[in-house]
Structure formats: C-alpha cells, structure tokens
Amino acid sequence: EEFVILNVGQIIPRKGIDLLILSLPDLLKDLQNIHLYIAGDGKIISDLINLAESLKVSTKIHFLGPLNHNDVLGYMKSANVFVLPTRSEGMGQVLIEALSVGTPVISTNVGGIPDFLTNDYDSILIPKDNIQALKKAIIKIAIDKKFTSKIIKNGHQTAKKYSLNNTAKLLKDLFNSVLYESINGNSKSKQ
User: Fold this and answer.
1) Cβ(18)–Cβ(48) below 8 Å
2) Phi, psi of 11, deg, nearest 5
3) Where are the alpha helices (H) located in 102-163, listed in sequence order?
4) What phi, psi does 149 have (nearest 5°)?
5) Residue 83 CB neighbour total at 10 angstroms
6) Could you read off the pLDDT of 38-60 as tens digits, one per residue?
7) d(Cα 153, Cα 151) in Å, to the nearest integer?
8) Cα–Cα distance between 95 and 113 in angstroms, integer?
9) What is the CA radius of gyration of the chain?
C-alpha cells in the first residue's frame, strides 16, 4: 500500500519542496512504498524534476499541476500526511485545510505557523531547512499510529478554531466591539 506525502501550493524556492525531494533517498530505506504528490505551479518545477532524476527518485514523485479546490481536498483526504517544509510563511491556510479533512500535518516552525499549530499536539513542527528532522517526522507519522491518531484528532479541533468562517466571526466580533467602544466611549479612558 502506498504511503502518500502531499504538498500543495506555489512551487517556488521559499516553499522548501526541494527538501522533500532531498529527503526521499533516505526515506525510501525505511518506507519503500512512499510516494510524493506535488500540486501547484511555479517557476522551479524543472529544477525539482532534475533534482529528483539526479537522486534517482523521479518514479516516486508525481507533479499534479494546478488543481481546483475540490481536487485539492480530495488529494488531502487520501494523503497519509501533508508536508509544507516552508522557509517562511504567513498563516498557511493550506495547513488548516489539511487538518480539517483529517490529514496529519508536518510543517516548519517559521512565520505565523507556530501561532496556530502546536508541535506534537496537532502537528509536527520542525526547524526550517532540516532534512533529518523532516525525515524523522515523516517516519513518525508512518509508524506511530497512536501518535498520528492523536494529532489528527487535535488537528481537527485546531481546524475548527481557525476555519475561515470562525476567523471571520472573530474579526466581526472584534470590529463590532471596537466600533461600540468608539461610539459609546471607552469607559476605561474616562476614569
């Protein structure tokens, strides 16, 4: 049975997809049935294909091209793990989407990601540019079923908390409270 790693997004250097490809030769020693699916478009696809060929792992990598949202969710649901080894990121909405469909997430501890994901609770967060940590995290997801079940369950709760609808409601409530205070006067400033 295939062990599917999925990455979705812009195929640009900042996203760290090269690290996923560089981790494959070592990963294949432990997980021979591993396959990497990469969805998206970008300027470094040919570089990544060349890298995969030079490492002799091109048969394990599948470039899907740009996908519509429903297809992305379908791939997320069928993946064993969603990996975003990014070198810099804002919030990473794609991580929330993966969690929302019950796919465990591995990402880097950069930018806004640690503001909403917690290592070993709802995801695995690794240092950026660390191929060994990436490999170790993927193997942990593949082998430690109890741990993986725990982060899937907790990840689903995180996804609910940070869903677009919930975030929009939180922003609306914040806006309304600021508006209320500006119209009615802030009682603290009058004391």
Assistant:
1) yes
2) -95, 85
3) 113-116, 131-143, 145-161
4) -60, -40
5) 28
6) 999 999 999 999 999 999 999 99
7) 5
8) 9
9) 19
The DSSP annotation for 38-67 comes to EE---TTHHHHHHHHHHTT-GGGEEEEES-
Tokens linked to 24: 């494959």
Amino acid at 96: I
d(C-alpha 142, C-alpha 74), whole Å = 20
Percent of the chain with pLDDT over 90: 81
Question: What average pLDDT is seen over the chain?
Answer: 91
Cβ atoms of residues 177 and 170 within 8 Å: no
Give the Cα separation of 8 and 137 in Å (integer). 18
Structure tokens belonging to residue 131 = 């191929």
**Token output for 139:** 């193997």
Contacts of 114 (CB under 8 A, 6+ apart): 125
pLDDT score at 173: 63
Helix, strand, coil: what percent of the chain each, to 5?
A: 55, 15, 30
CA distance 11 to 90: 16
Joined together, the tokens standing for residue 161 give 């908390």
Residues 77, 103: contact at Cβ < 8 Å?
Answer: yes
Which residue shows structure tokens 């993927």? Answer: 138
